[in-house]
Amino acid sequence: MTIEAPPRPAEAPQPAARPSAGRRAWALWLRWWRRLTAMRTAIVLLFLLAVAAIPGSLLPQRALSQDNVRQYYLDHPTLAPVLDRLYLFDVFSSPWFAAVYLLLFVSLIGCVVPRVAEHARALRAAPPPAPRRLLRLPDSAGLATPLAGPAALDVVEEELRVRRFRVVRRSGAAGEELSAEKGSWKETGNLVFHLSLVALLLGLAGGKLWGYEGSILVTEGQGFCNSFQQYDTYSAGPLVEGSDLSPLCVDLEDFRAEYEEDLTAASYTADISYGPPGAEGRRTTIGVNDPLRTGGDRVYVTGHGYSPRFTVTLPDGTVFEGVSAPFLPADQGTLASEGALKLPDLGAGVEDQLAVEGFLAPTGVLQGGVLTSIDPRPLSPQVAVLVYRGYLGLDSGLPQSVYSLDADQVERGNLTEVGRANLAVGESITLDDGTSITFDGVDQFAALQFSHDPGQVWVLVASITLLAGLLALLLLRRERFFARATAAADGGGTVLTVGSLTRGGGDSAERFTELTGELRTALADRSSPTPPAGGADPHPGGPHP
Amino acid sequence: MTVDPALAELSDTLFSASVAVYSAAVVAFCAQLAFGRRPARQLVAAGTGGDAPVAGDGAATAGPAPAGRASRWGAVGLALTVVGALVHAGVLVTRGLATDRLPWGNMYEFATAVVLVGVVSFVVLAVRVPGARDIGAYVLAVVVLAQVAIGLFLYAEAGPLVAALRSSWLAVHVSSAVLGFGVFFVSGIASALYLLRLRHDAGGGDAGSVLARLPGAVTLDRVAHRTAVFGFPIWTFAVIAGAIWAESAWGRFWGWDPKETWAFIAWVVYAGYLHARTTAGWRGRPAAWVNVVGLGVMVFNLLYVNMVSTGLHSYAGLD
Ligand code: HEM
Question: Under CATH, to which class is A126-183+477-527 assigned?
Answer without folding.
Answer: alpha beta
